[in-house]
UniProtKB/TrEMBL annotation:
Highest taxon in the source lineage: Eukaryota
PANTHER family on file: TRANSMEMBRANE EMP24 DOMAIN-CONTAINING PROTEIN
Record Pfam families: EMP24_GP25L
Main location: membrane
Protein name, per record: GOLD domain-containing protein
Keyword Signal in record: yes
Annotated signal peptide: 1-20
Keywords of the record: Membrane, Signal, Transmembrane, Transmembrane helix
Subcellular location(s) per record: Membrane
Length: 208
């Protein structure tokens, strides 16, 4: 009972870190998947072309994965399946783009299944169990510990993003307030100049 409960908690913690995505690629054009990931996080992706037409060869695709600053992390052509794995070195949006190879354009849309894992979900727990000689409840507790650490790191990341957004908001509000004060000052000066000009005009015309 305890083992199943621990496993259930681990699954709940890992749900957001694992995504299975179905993409329908048009015969021409590109489809991309992105995720905002913090620094020093393991990312693992498996993709496979799914074809229901068994009378013809499976169409091939090209894949490109890039970092937030445009660094090429994975690139493959003429593929029906593949895998990419990397550890992030910068926080931001990581982009995976898929498109159908040129000579397959006459075969219509292509379906691709992408299994995208990050953080604790991408860890090889079988290797950890063999290396540390743990199993059963102890292994599940280790998974839970890793999930808690991942959640804590995500909370710290969200906290830093919130602080960054708050600073941007405060700077924007300060600039708006300064601009408003300048606008009011300009209006007052212009109004005073208009009154002074009108007064001189009427004095010259001896109307006042």
């Amino acid at each position: 009972m305890m083992k199943s409960t621990v496993a259930f908690l681990v699954i709940l913690c890992m749900v957001r870190a694992t995504e299975s995505i179905w993409l329908t690629l048009p015969s021409s054009g590109t489809k991309c998947v992105s995720e905002e990931i913090q620094n020093n996080v393991v990312v693992l992706g498996d993709y496979v072309v799914v074809s229901e037409d068994h009378t013809h060869d499976t169409p091939t695709i090209s894949v490109k994965v890039t970092s937030p600053y445009g660094s090429n992390l994975h690139h493959a052509e003429n593929s029906t399946h593949g895998q990419f794995a990397f550890t992030t070195h910068e926080a931001g949006n990581y982009l995976a783009c898929f498109w159908v190879d040129g000579y397959n354009h006459d075969k219509g849309d292509v379906s691709v299944n992408l299994d995208w894992k990050t953080g604790i979900a991408a860890k090889d727990w079988e290797s950890v169990a063999r290396k540390e000689k743990i199993e059963g409840v102890e292994l599940e507790l280790r998974k839970l510990e890793g999930a808690v650490e991942a959640i804590h790191e995500n909370l710290l990341f969200l906290k830093s993003k919130e602080a960054e957004m708050r600073n941007v908001s405060e700077n924007t509000n300060a600039r708006v307030a300064w601009f408003s004060m300048v606008s009011v000052s300009v209006c007052i000066v212009v109004s005073a100049l208009q009154l002074w000009y009108l007064k001189r005009f009427f004095q010259k015309k001896k109307l006042i």
